[in-house]
Design goal:
Layout lengths: L2 H20 L8 E2 L2 E7 L5 E9 L2 E2 L3 E5 L4 E6 L7 E8 L2 E6 L9 E2 L2 E6 L6 E4 L9
Parallel strand pairs: 1-9, 2-10
Antiparallel strand pairs: 2-6, 3-4, 3-5, 3-7, 7-8, 10-11
Length: about 140
């Protein structure tokens, strides 16, 4: 094997090893203290937003909220002890979406992520995480 190929393979193995720590392989999980899901109806009609919080153990109970046209409604969830939310699944008018919680892996502090579950700006519902998951110190 030529020397350049050996150097490339050795360098690639080292880079993958270093990036593995950044990617959350084998790291600690953050504790989600509170999860806020804001339901945003950007249409001219009332819609039922259905969603369920997904954990490493599986999908939780589905709940439904009727949201008037052109309004937003916030729903706050305090996860049970030992429960680690990883995503939220939702549907509006038979159209589904999934919002993965970002920054939960490898966190070393309490987290309070906020997701916007929005329908009406596009043809499909979407989830957007719009905070850095820091908990307010109030």
């Amino acid at each position: 094997m030529p020397a350049t190929r050996r150097r490339f393979l050795a360098g690639s193995s080292t880079a993958v090893g270093l990036l593995g720590g950044c990617a959350g392989l084998g790291g600690q999980s953050g504790r989600v203290e509170e999860l806020t899901i804001e339901l945003g109806n950007g249409t001219d009609e009332r819609h039922a937003f259905r969603f369920a919080v997904e954990t490493a153990e599986g999908l939780g109970e589905w709940e439904s909220h009727e949201v008037p046209p052109g309004t937003k409604e916030s729903v706050v969830r305090d996860p049970a002890a030992g429960e680690s939310p990883v995503a939220v699944r939702g549907t509006v008018d038979g159209k589904s979406a999934r919002g993965r919680l970002l920054g939960v892996e490898n966190a070393d502090r309490d987290l309070c992520p906020r997701l916007l579950f929005e329908y009406g700006r596009t043809d499909e519902p979407v989830f957007l995480q719009y905070s850095d998951a820091e908990c307010d110190e109030s």
